[in-house]
Design brief:
CATH superfamily of the largest domain: NAD(P)-binding Rossmann-like Domain
Largest sheet: 7 strands, parallel
Radius of gyration: 19 Å
Structural class: alpha/beta
Bound molecules: uridine-5'-diphosphate
Oligomer: single chain
Strand content: 15-25%
Helix content: 25-40%
Number of domains: 2
Mean pLDDT: 96
Shape: globular
CATH topology of the largest domain: Rossmann fold
Length: about 325
């Protein structure tokens, strides 16, 4: 298939592009390079620089390239930042995303795979979180993604735009070529590995008084390649659907740091800080639905295997993509 990968120069988009190409698909990457990196775009893909605010440009691009489906990764995706600057989240993730959807409707591109998030749920009433859990986001990031999911439902009903919305839990890890390099790194695993590399003096632990066994937040870390495989399966889904994507296991912040120490074989200093606002204490996915309906099978089950792949990438690219 010919796929337009919107946000394909970012962490998750770059690895989905790589996998699409490995599997014989054709990929066109559209990215404004605000967060993404030109060198994160696989050399086999065609690259178009542009922004989702440019409605006419998106329409012209869809008309000229005629993709069979769109994968939409372009978004602002930081919980903490969304608590300080909600407008950025509602603008980028809803208004700009609408420009893409409208251009798809106008040019008759009828299929989209959407990057959603476990942040649409907020604090769970039971674990693991399956698709029947009530969506009650506690930060503007989650709220913006939930709003877009609802918009997708209406566009399906009114315009027959078929969608699969994948709610990622915590994406982590790397392939041999591509990995996680955010301009302002806020994510746990890369921050811990930067300390192991000597690039940062210590890692901060945000909150040690949560109601968890060691007092730190628990997240479900899922390998980026397993996420990417779910996107490829989603392209062939017969109906519009929402799927949660995680491993079904959870690791605390302290457990992640301990695993990084073991894998890197280096000291990693920590500093305990207050809670980061907008963080639920535990998020663990049930992915039974996507396993049953699309035959998805995660291949990386252990936190160690995920961190090992990230550590290899960070050692190979200690300064990330360098731009
Ligand atoms: N976290 C932390 N120190 C950091 C970065 C993150 O303690 O330097 C915590 C964060 O509060 C959360 C967990 O690690 O409980 C995962 O955060 P991350 O930003 O990686 O992903 P999120 O869950 O926000 O998508």
């Amino acid at each position: 298939m010919k796929i337009l990968v919107v946000g394909g120069a970012g962490y998750i988009g770059s690895i989905c592009t790589e996998l699409l190409l490995d599997e014989g698909h054709e990929a066109i990457v559209f990215d404004n390079l605000g967060e993404g990196h030109r060198s994160a775009v696989d050399s086999r893909a065609r690259f178009i620089q542009g922004d989702l605010t440019e409605r006419e440009k998106i329409q012209a691009m869809l008309s000229s390239t005629r993709p069979e489906a769109v994968m939409h990764f372009a978004a602002s995706a930081l919980v903490g930042e969304s608590m300080r600057d909600p407008s950025k989240y509602f603008r980028n993730n809803i208004s700009n995303g609408l420009n893409l959807l409208d251009a798809m409707v106008t040019t008759h591109v009828e299929r989209i795979v959407f990057s959603s998030t476990c942040a649409i749920f907020g604090p769970p009433t039971r674990l693991p979180i399956d698709e029947t859990a009530p969506p009650r986001p506690i930060n503007p990031y989650g709220e913006s993604k939930l709003a877009f999911e609802r918009i997708l439902r209406w566009y399906d009903q009114i315009h027959s735009l078929k969608f699969v919305s994948l709610r990622y839990f915590n994406a982590a890890g790397a392939t041999g070529n591509f990995g996680e390099d955010h301009r302002l790194e806020t994510h746990l695993i890369p921050n811990v590995l930067k300390v192991a590399l000597g690039e940062k003096p210590h890692v901060e632990i945000y909150g040690t008084d949560y109601e968890t066994p060691d007092g730190t937040c628990i997240r479900d870390y899922i390998h980026i390649l397993d996420l990417a495989r779910a996107h490829i399966l989603a392209l062939e889904a017969a109906k519009s659907e929402f799927y949660n994507l995680g491993t079904g296991g959870g690791s605390s912040v302290r457990e992640v740091i301990a695993a990084c120490r073991k894998i890197a074989g280096r000291n990693i200093d920590t500093v305990e800080k207050p809670r980061r606002s907008g963080d639920p204490s535990r998020l663990i996915a049930s992915s039974e639905k996507i396993k049953n309906e699309l035959g998805w099978r995660p291949q990386f089950q252990s936190l160690e295997a995920i961190i090992e792949s990230a550590w290899k990438w960070h050692q190979k690219f200690p300064h990330g993509y360098g731009d």
